[in-house]
Design a protein that fits this description.
alpha+beta, 4 helices
């Protein structure tokens, strides 16, 4: 994947970490979840959830990203599984996460799930002057005037 698009993906996800997460096998609609990021972990995203969440079985999964300002969109596929490393749990725990668990971080109801990214499609909207002209006049926009697109692991 183009390094500029990959960097934009991670920056925009950090700035607006809310995604729609769903399991492939369930056929259910996505759930809004807050992605937890670790700058040192490549191709991984974590989610705190309650043990009875419909996502807790894990497996093949997807999440969609719509960054602030709608300058970047992504569809990400991978595998969702239980994260058992307590050091990762402690590193990702925050006041924002604590607000969802009344018993605190030792609650038996907390489940930390790791999403291992396998593939992605990322669209970076970056209209050229010509693209903006076409947009405002209603004439067809050429693909090279609308932004950038890349596929592959981010």
């Amino acid at each position: 994947m183009d390094p500029d698009i990959r960097d934009a993906f991670w920056k925009d996800l950090a700035d607006s970490p809310y995604v729609m997460l769903r399991l492939d096998k369930s056929g259910a609609d996505g759930q809004p979840m807050r992605a937890m990021l670790d700058a040192d972990a490549h191709h991984k995203v974590w989610f705190f959830m309650h043990r009875d969440n419909s996502l807790s079985p894990g497996g093949a999964a997807k999440f969609d990203v719509s960054a602030k300002g709608h300058k970047l969109f992504a569809a990400v596929t991978g595998t969702l599984s239980v994260e058992s490393d307590r050091a990762v749990f402690e590193n990702l725990w925050s006041d924002q996460v604590a607000a969802w668990f009344k018993e605190g971080k030792d609650s038996p109801d907390i489940l930390l799930m790791r999403f291992d990214i396998a593939d992605s499609q990322v669209w970076q909207v970056d209209m050229t002057v010509g693209g903006l002209f076409h947009l405002f006049t209603g004439t067809p926009i050429q693909p090279d005037q609308a932004g950038h697109y890349a596929t592959g692991p981010v």
